[in-house]
Design brief:
By secondary structure, the chain is α/β, with parallel strands linked by helices. It has four domains: 63 residues, SH3 type barrels, CATH 2.30.30.380; 244 residues, von Willebrand factor, type A domain (Rossmann fold), CATH 3.40.50; 124 residues, Up-down Bundle (Four Helix Bundle (Hemerythrin (Met), subunit A)); 118 residues, Severin, CATH 3.40.20. The chain is built from 18 helices and 22 strands. A hairpin with an 8-residue loop joins strand 8 and strand 9. The two termini are 39 Å apart.
Length: 693
């Protein structure tokens, strides 16, 4: 379920003080599948069959088919997705929530200042604060903002509108974190604009000559959490952080990076947090509705597996810019930050999935926290997070009635309104295996298997996880061969039509950096990718595991369409052409050694690639010719489809960067020992034959 679908806003239904109509027994919400009986005076629940009285204010007559006559006027009776306005009973401590707050927390240690990062963030925030998310037709955003800077101590700022200048308050006792001011810390942007701008101008100057290299991390989250508690609201912390927090403080970490653990039984420790401190902190954050978004700018190991725990369990996002350099990474960082600050968000969310008899939700994957087996809790949520739910078939299903799911999400909107978003789904059931194999969704299956495997590496050796994946898929395909395929010689590999690509994609998951790292892949990269994939939707995992490869030289410059994608293998590349490869995180442009001079001139504005030209290109030059316009419009189109701004990397054939590019040609044998597609297919065939014999 992508919980906050970005397309069109669902209808908001307001039932007044009595709140939404629900089944008496299982508490499912009114939906199109409920059956009205006795002339409309009662309804039978489609999930648990219990009969509930219709309250007088909701009563309506039925037509000759048994449908209510107001069926089309009510979203909850005619649509799959809609929202209810929640009553005070659905709110924490039985009182309506206050509007949320955004707190910007900026690392001002030596690295952050020296790289130009602090100045860049402060400059950007001056204009970005005008674009905070707001409800529908509201004049201005209801979100209040606050500012903290930190190295091994924390600096809070009073930006109250009545002040002539911002005031700084320092908390150096990081072991016992508190917020030194209540009034003037969280403010309305418009009211305090001059004080905020003055502060953002002063921060880079104040720390310009800093020599402080050490940072703290946990106290920063604690400070944000305490501020939200004091203001009695939910909210989001935007933390900009550069190094491993080794300063004396709660949550202090040590460098435990060890490549020697790869392929041993201890490899799983690299993915686990090195202390339970952050798990407890995450729990406190979720209870307050405090979501943490983390921007990391590491020049060396900084332990993403531990620092990411709170972000991950609060429904936040991690962004990572290794070896951050202003000229090459500024665009990507600013685009990510702008999108992150502006996107529609919800807070303090709880999701529950109800099902009709025969199936039940048994497992959940994504960025959230669970304190029991049914409620998925998220301090924050947005349109870039997906939750994958696994259902178990545990009772009889019938082809006539099918299977029903209802996903109910209770959350606070960005203006502080408590709402329920409801998604309903009715699925067909079949008794014949052949029908099942005819309708299966390989892309969805891969999304699930990847998330299942990426969770598995926390508790099992990577080899065990890989073997289990291969075995699971061999079972699926052997079952088809045994029960559905027409008898033929054992020498043939027979795959169901819908699963022709299962082995290709499975091989890509097995060869991915988390399950089979190349030499240049860092421990932090693996932890980062593991967390990223866990929140991806089906379209994102699809292109992440099997990147899109487009022949740019074949593009029709006069049409808006993309050139047809080709298969990811080196043998498909011709030396005289230019190709684009994208996987949702990076865009590569590969230039063959024999590409005509004129094409290079048209695209890059240079007659030949001099030394170092490629290293500094993070964008293509804007040139007035049809080829340049076409390629740039393709890149813009791809960037718009992705939730993160992709890094542009230009690769010349036979250049040293080409090794990195070849890592993404997933049908070929990989340097880290991953099988080519052809070899893997043979291996799969052998596994299936073994199962059948």
């Amino acid at each position: 379920f992508s919980l906050l679908l970005p397309q069109t806003l669902p209808y908001l239904v307001d039932h007044g003080e009595s709140g939404p109509i629900r089944c008496n027994r299982c508490k499912a919400y009114m939906c199109p599948f409920m059956q009205f009986i006795e002339g409309g005076r009662r309804f039978q629940c489609c999930f648990c069959s219990c009969v509930t009285e219709v309250p007088p204010h909701y009563f309506q007559h039925l037509d000759h088919t048994g449908k209510r006559v107001d069926f089309y006027d009510r979203p909850e009776l005619s649509l799959g997705s809609y929202e209810f306005l929640a009553t005070v009973d659905y709110c924490k401590n039985n009182k309506f929530p206050s509007p949320p707050a955004f707190i910007f927390m900026i690392d001002v240690s030596y690295n952050a200042v020296k790289s130009g990062l602090v100045r860049l963030i402060c400059e950007e925030l001056k204009s970005l604060l005008d674009y905070l998310p707001r409800e529908g037709n509201m004049e201005e955003s209801a979100i209040r903002v606050g500012f903290v800077t930190y190295n091994k101590v924390l600096h809070f700022y009073n930006v109250k509108s009545s002040l002539a200048q911002p005031q700084m308050m320092v908390v150096s006792d990081v072991a016992d974190m508190f917020v030194p001011l209540l009034d003037g810390f969280l403010v309305n942007v418009n009211e305090s604009r001059t004080v905020i701008v003055s502060l953002l101008d002063q921060i880079p100057e104040m720390f310009a000559d800093t020599r402080e290299t050490e940072t703290v991390f946990a106290p920063v989250i604690q400070a944000g959490l305490e501020a939200l508690k004091a203001a009695e609201c939910a909210g989001k912390l935007f933390i900009f952080h550069t190094s491993l927090p080794i300063a004396e403080a709660p949550g202090k970490l040590k460098n435990r990076d060890d490549k020697k653990l790869i392929n041993t039984d201890k490899e799983k420790t690299l993915f686990q947090p090195q202390t339970s401190f952050y798990n407890n902190l995450a729990k406190d954050c979720v209870a307050q509705g405090c979501c943490v978004d983390l921007y990391l700018f590491p020049n060396q190991y900084l332990d993403v597996a531990t620092l990411g725990v709170v972000t991950y369990q609060t429904g936040g996002s991690i962004y990572k810019y290794a070896y951050f350099q202003l000229e090459t990474d500024q665009d990507r960082f600013l685009n990510d930050l702008r999108r992150d600050v502006q996107k529609e968000v919800g807070f303090d969310a709880v999701m529950r999935v109800r099902t009709s008899t025969g199936i039940r939700a048994t497992d959940f994957f994504g960025a959230f926290y669970m304190s029991n087996t049914t409620d998925v809790e998220m301090a924050g949520l947005d349109c870039d997070k997906t939750i994958t739910v696994e259902f178990k078939h545990d009772d009889k299903l019938s082809e006539d009635s099918g299977a029903l799911l209802q996903c109910a999400l209770l959350y606070t909107s960005c203006a502080g309104q408590r709402r329920l978003r409801i998604h309903n789904l009715s699925l067909n059931c079949c008794t014949q295996l052949a029908d099942l194999y005819r309708n299966c969704e390989t892309d969805t299956l891969i999304n699930y298997l990847a998330k299942y495997a990426y969770r598995g590496v926390l508790s099992s050796p990577v080899k065990t996880v890989r073997d289990a994946l291969i075995n699971q898929c061999a079972q699926i395909l052997a079952c088809y061969r045994k029960n559905c395929a027409s008898p033929s010689s054992a020498g043939q590999l027979i795959l169901p039509e819908c699963m022709k690509l299962l082995p290709v994609y499975l091989n890509c998951v097995l060869k991915s950096d988390v399950l089979q790292p190349g030499l240049e892949v860092t421990t932090d990269d693996r932890a980062y990718i593991r967390q990223l994939v866990t929140s991806m939707d089906v379209a994102e995992t699809n292109v992440f595991f099997y990147p899109r490869l487009l022949p740019l030289t074949k593009a029709d410059v006069d049409s808006d369409s993309l050139p047809a994608a080709i298969r990811n293998s080196e043998e498909r590349l011709s030396k005289g052409d230019i190709y684009l490869l994208e996987n949702g995180l990076n865009i590569f442009i590969w230039v063959g050694v024999n590409v005509q001079q004129g094409l290079i001139q048209n695209l890059f504005g240079v007659s030949s690639f001099g030394i170092g030209y490629l290293a500094f290109q993070s964008t293509l030059p804007v040139l007035e010719n049809s080829f340049s316009k076409k390629v740039r419009s393709i890149i813009d189109m791809l960037q718009a489809q992705r939730s993160r701004y992709m890094k542009l990397i230009i690769v010349k054939q036979e250049d040293k960067l080409e090794m990195l590019f070849k890592h993404f040609l997933v049908e070929d044998k990989s340097l880290s020992g991953g099988a080519s597609y052809v070899d893997f297919l043979c291996h799969m065939h052998k596994e299936i034959r073994q199962l059948l014999s």
